From TrEMBL:
Keywords: ATP-binding, Cell membrane, Membrane, Nucleotide-binding, Sugar transport, Translocase, Transport
PROSITE patterns, A to Z: ABC_TRANSPORTER_2
CDD domains in alphabetical order: ABC_Carb_Monos_I
InterPro entries from the UniProt entry: AAA+_ATPase, ABC_carbohydrate_import_ATPase, ABC_transporter-like_ATP-bd, P-loop_NTPase
Keyword Lipid metabolism found: no
Signal peptide: none
SMART domains: AAA
Pfam families: ABC_tran
Name of the protein in question: ABC-type sugar transport system ATPase subunit
Length: 374
């Protein structure tokens, strides 16, 4: 790893309508390092990377790339400076092929589609990706989409690539493939900024990690210093033991939701109980059944077994049934499965309530609802 900074950030500040979001960020990125960026939600991570990729313009401060001042005002300027990002929802043209996405911007050079696909195949092969250049991007798995987006930035000779929660939708095997690709890019001299809440991944991959809290850098740790208890303390300014919820000695609240022997075509009978004010975590490998529980409880798939809401037996055969008893699903892929991007915010917010609103003659209430959540 080259110790000379490829990116230097000094006293970077960002204000939104008088709210101080970044309060003087100082950090640097070395050439050829994998640099973790950690912090609670709201610590300033997203704002920082949006400034680096020129989605936002900083209120004040200094950014230098390879020693030169950087004052980009658009994502195109960031791309030209060699800085790009890969988000959880890979930004691909889904109706185009893998080759077309990979070579986007240079299509005029490729009159022969077969030649274009052969060139894309050579690029993918060089970095160890086994993806069919002729496949439609929309048909790829989440992992393949992530890696194709990474390959595109690599092919375009980006110097700094920011990865935002890259394994959030990947299985263990898919994550290992992604890690191998990240290490390959590091060996090629690229700098990777790795944003994740999964500390085990940060310890496995990152050379250093910078921790943000309340818009400030509180520490930059070397790999050997990345310890779960210490990182937790730095992120929230309290020790892990302080975060434990003490039992006040009161009786547990009523059971809000209970399922008994819930099963589907892909899920063995499963039982669980959730009390009021509880947060119940359900974890396991992708395909292990978690998604079956959420789909059954939200009325998306058929199930067998019993469901009780506040002690009363319920049958959930549709999403409207689920909403009637107060069960709502926020799906994994909000962009594809929860939003209509061609509709307004008011229309999106009002959709689950249209029947109720129309009966009351209050469709215009949607605008008020949208303003309350914005």
């Amino acid at each position: 790893m080259d110790a000379r900074p490829i990116v230097e950030i000094r006293d970077l500040r960002e204000d939104f309508s008088g709210v101080h979001v970044l309060k003087g960020i100082d950090m640097s990125l070395a050439r050829g390092e994998i640099h973790g960026l950690l912090g609670e939600n709201g610590a300033g991570k997203s704002t920082l990377i949006k400034i680096l990729t020129c989605v936002y313009t900083a209120s004040s401060g200094d950014i230098r790339i390879e020693g030169e001042p950087f004052h980009g005002h658009s994502p195109k300027a960031a791309n030209e400076a060699g800085v790009g990002a890969v988000y959880q929802d890979a930004e691909l043209a889904w109706n185009m092929t893998v080759a077309e996405n990979l070579l986007l911007g240079s299509e005029s050079r490729w009159i022969d589609r077969r030649a274009m696909e052969r060139e894309a195949g050579r690029i993918l092969s060089r970095i160890g990706l086994d993806i069919d250049p002729a496949a439609r991007a929309g048909a790829l798995t989440a992992a393949q989409m992530q890696m194709l987006t990474l390959a595109t930035l690599f092919h375009r000779k980006f110097k700094v690539i920011i990865l935002d929660e890259p394994t959030a939708r990947l299985s263990g095997r898919e994550s290992e493939l992604l890690f191998a690709l990240i290490r390959r890019f590091k060996a090629e001299g690229l700098t990777i900024v790795y944003i994740s809440h999964r500390l085990n991944e940060v310890k496995l991959l990152c050379d250093r990690a910078t921790i943000l809290r309340d818009g400030r850098v509180v520490a930059t740790l070397a790999r050997g210093e990345i310890d779960e208890a210490e990182v937790t303390r730095l992120m929230v300014n309290r020790s892990a033991s302080d975060l434990e919820i003490a039992n006040p000695g009161f009786a547990r609240p009523d059971v809000a939701l209970e399922v008994k022997a819930l099963g589907t075509a892909k899920l063995s009978p499963t039982s669980l109980r959730v009390h009021r004010s509880d947060i119940l975590g359900i974890t396991g490998p992708i395909g292990g059944g978690m998604e079956q529980i959420e789909k059954a409880l939200s009325g998306l798939i058929a199930y067998h077994g019993e469901i009780f809401a506040e002690g009363r037996p319920m049958r959930i055969d549709s999403p409207s049934d689920a909403l009637d008893i107060g069960v709502a699903l926020i799906p994994e892929d909000r962009r594809k499965q929860a939003l209509f991007p061609n509709l307004t915010m008011a229309e999106n917010v009002a959709l689950p309530l249209l029947d109720r609103l129309s009966r009351l003659g209050m469709v215009l209430l949607a605008a008020t609802l949208a303003s309350e959540v914005s």
